């Protein structure tokens, strides 16, 4: 226990949501510079507790203490961006403009970018930039890594480590929490537990508490048997690592490593792929793809990439937003023609796809309606009949929730329901785009188990490093500059073997972030080659695309003009101030061009993908 007085604290706080008690007798304290996490199941009340700390929600009882003069910044799960430009928004809370501009730049955002039409990742980064620009004494972050790519997450990690304020973070990202926190608060069964160690020690500690609580429940009253079973399934059973699965994953990775070595040799020699017969899902040879840029030139997304994906492989696809991950998926699934190379698909592919945007759910539908839209009490789960209630329990839903409207579910519970529906789809190829967003750690452990037992092939697009490490047999990485590599194993294996692949060794993180100022939104992927009716870009997107097509050639001419001026060897000695001004203008023009090309590419990919259909 720290001897320093807290800057923000709760004592004996309680709050009920209608007849249901969220928490009772909660104590929480943050001392200066303390970095802590708040974990718990979806719907446990974590976000509400954060709002009580921020002074935005009143509790039913207990005390809230805030030291005099303490400044608090809260970043919610769904930030609302206001103002004409990002600099207006980032400085709108009282931050000085130069701090707001620096924070936006650190997160790869242009200060003069309009606040309309932002992607989910841009919205999140803008909210984080505003919070850091205000230099608060306490930073409250609710799922801050959602919609961020790995490099934005690493930037956030660095800024948290350098921050002189305190922080309380709600997140499902284990690797992120292990790198940023030194204390854990666990909201479980209406109680708030505290561990004065970092998140790396959380699992073992939580298992001990769960085991003791289960034993207490058994001794107190046999009528608590159901609650005891929930606890056992909710924590201990899922968090205990299944050694059999771990050994299987290691064996699959070793097999994949051997196959990758063989593939590189066999593909170059033109070995007949028919030898692998029905085991083959996708075989790609020498794939290259570029997008033409307005005003001439082209953006190379990948060149001469080859891979072979067999039944049972679990392939993770990683890279910065806008690097071409969706384009690669469409190439591998035969939905987009490469500029060079070939793709051969296995026979009788059935594809189930869960896209990043998530399909909309009707608020008035019940959980039962969503899982069994045709009625009845049986659903087919990958070819086998299951009772709706039994299948719902697999995804941690209680019987009492089956007839509740979807509108009553929390955001994490809704995502869990969509995941259950997608995983029930008959499929031998499962494509998941950011499946971990908004899921609590119990659900992530459950999802890991389900995917580990899945006997089909998995292609996973994710920025969750720990999730990739625990599932992937191989990792395909795109660097956004045309390079694509595949490494056996997960994210850690990839970074160890390719430390400089994703960023140039002479490029700082801030410079790299600037090049990522326009994020690509997730595009739907067709599950069948039949063409769908083409759709149009929204008016805003179409207008912006037209602006970019006019802007990019002008920027190219500006850069040529500035470079010509710098070619004058006498400029530096004749007028140092003019030389510095031209250098600054050239650097700004190049950054704006890079950002414009990224945004143009994202809109072009979106335009092409709008006509696609997906299987949900």
Descriptive account of the structure:
By secondary structure, this protein is of the alpha/beta class. The protein folds into 4 domains: 8-239, P-loop containing nucleotide triphosphate hydrolases (Rossmann fold, 3-Layer(aba) Sandwich), CATH 3.40.50.300; 247-349 and 428-514, P-loop containing nucleotide triphosphate hydrolases (Rossmann fold, 3-Layer(aba) Sandwich), CATH 3.40.50; 361-424, no CATH class; 539-609, Helix Hairpins, CATH 1.10.287. It has 20 helices and 20 strands. The chain has helices at 46-54, 86-90, 97-106, 120-133, 150-162, 174-180, 202-220, 225-239, 243-269, 325-332, 367-371, 388-394, 411-423, 441-453, 465-471, 491-497, 509-514, 539-566, 571-574, 576-609, and strands at 8-17, 20-30, 35-40, 61-66, 72-75, 138-142, 166-170, 183-188, 191-195, 280-292, 298-310, 314-318, 340-345, 351-354, 378-381, 384-387, 429-433, 457-461, 474-478, 484-488. The chain starts with 7 loop residues before the first strand and ends in a 7-residue tail after the last helix.
